[in-house]
């Protein structure tokens, strides 16, 4: 079961939806083909000015995605390269058994978006 502060991200989603003008993208899974997670960023002068996510998944996927976007907004990119699944899990207060991989998905999608070669949109 998710902690009450984590459930607030499910009840009142933050940073959910498509990010118009995104400059960077990280993706786990394939939209329309099972569970997936997309994190889109707008980065200007190495600062994340906006972050949004899209996911088709359970409440744990929503919480992890929402928290990662919340953490990223306003931060310099170099401060986020080391964000781990363990960090995400600690911030959300733990995840239900069998859902731990969703923290890794969120951290990996952010890393992909921050990757100067893979994450940059043309």
Topology:
Layout (H helix, E strand, L loop, with lengths): L3 H8 L12 E5 L7 E9 L2 E10 L2 H14 L12 H8 L8 H14 L8
Antiparallel strand pairs: 1-2, 2-3
Characterize the structure shown.
This protein has 122 residues and is α+β, with helices and mostly antiparallel strands. It has one domain (4-114): Sufe protein. Chain: A, CATH 3.90.1010. Helices cover 36% and strands 20% of the residues. The protein is built from four helices and three strands, in the order αβββααα. It has helices at 4-11, 59-72, 85-92, 101-114, and strands at 24-28, 36-44, 47-56. A three-stranded antiparallel β-sheet has the order 1-2-3. A hairpin with a 7-residue loop joins strand 1 (24-28) and strand 2. Helix 3 packs across helix 4. The longest helix is centred in the middle third of the chain and has 14 residues, at 59-72. The radius of gyration is 13 Å and the shape is globular. The mean pLDDT is 91.
Tell me the number of strands.
Answer: 3
Top CATH class: Alpha Beta
Compute the CA-based radius of gyration.
13 Å
Number of helices: 4
Task: Please sum up the structure shown.
The protein is of the alpha+beta class and about 120 residues long. The protein has 4 helices and 3 strands.
Main features:
alpha+beta, 122 residues, Sufe protein. Chain: A
